[in-house]
TrEMBL record:
Principal cellular location given in the protein's record: nucleus
Family annotation (InterPro entries): HORMA_dom (IPR003511), HORMA_dom_sf (IPR036570), HORMA_MeioticProgression (IPR051294)
Boundaries of every HORMA domain copy: 21-219
Biological processes, Gene Ontology terms: meiotic recombination checkpoint signaling; synaptonemal complex assembly
Protein name: HORMA domain-containing protein
Entry keywords, A to Z: Chromosome, Meiosis, Nucleus
Pfam families found in the cross-reference section: HORMA (PF02301)
Record keyword Nucleus present: yes
GO cellular component: chromosome; nucleus
């Protein structure tokens, strides 16, 4: 006697596609988390300015305003919190008011975070972290570390892509900072935005000024 059995397998569901606005929001969160990670690893601020939280990108699909949770689910990340120091608050304001406006407009092509030690020479950097941004034909945004034009910036159009991008960024920062010397206790930060060619000449996000004719910052 030959016995046979069969089972019905459900198809793997397709990843849910984000809207353009959701893609922008996730890329902004990825940038904030990335810079928070760098700020923690390089001791930009005192330790009480940071908190360990979990990001749940799927909450975006549920129209939740807060993507973080204190539970053990989600992606573990060390983030800056407001209300502890005016320096960290100002840094977060750059991101939440100036950078987010530029990102939503579709004009943000690059971001440079510089560290310098002489307030009279802000163009002389001791460290610099560069992020590149791109937008596909559907308006989805993407983020990548570095400015190599030959490296493609993949758009974030699904939650799965956001998770993959986040994990790649965190690994990159840990590798980048492992071999660096300690920074001096007194240091200063600068942030420069690079706009796309389509950006109007009079566009200027909140808290930023035109530095076209300033001395180029170098390491």
């Amino acid at each position: 006697t030959v016995m046979t059995s069969s089972s019905k397998l459900d198809p793997i569901p397709e990843p849910k596609t984000l809207t353009k606005a959701e893609s922008m929001k996730l890329v902004h969160h990825l940038l904030v988390m990335s810079l928070g990670c760098i700020a923690y690893l390089r001791d930009f601020f005192a330790e009480d300015n940071f908190v360990v939280r979990r990001l749940i990108p799927e909450r975006l699909l549920e129209h939740e305003t807060n993507l973080y949770t204190s539970s053990k689910s989600g992606l573990k990340v060390t983030t800056l919190v407001k209300g502890i120091s005016k320096e960290a608050d100002k840094f977060l304001d750059w991101l939440d008011h100036g950078v987010l406006c530029c990102l939503k407009s579709g004009f943000l092509k690059g971001l440079s975070l510089g560290i310098f030690t002489d307030p009279q020479r802000p163009e002389k950097l001791v460290e610099c972290y560069v992020f590149s941004f791109a937008y596909d034909e559907n308006g989805y945004a993407g983020i990548r570390v570095g400015s190599d034009a030959e490296d493609r910036v993949a758009p974030v159009s699904t939650v799965l892509e956001a998770r993959d991008t986040f994990q790649q960024l965190m690994r990159r920062f840990i590798i980048l900072t492992q071999s660096l010397d300690l920074l001096p206790s007194k240091k200063y930060l600068s942030m420069r935005l690079i706009y796309s060619d389509s950006c109007p000449s009079d566009f200027q996000p909140h808290l930023f000024r035109d530095c076209t004719f300033d001395t180029p910052a170098t390491v």
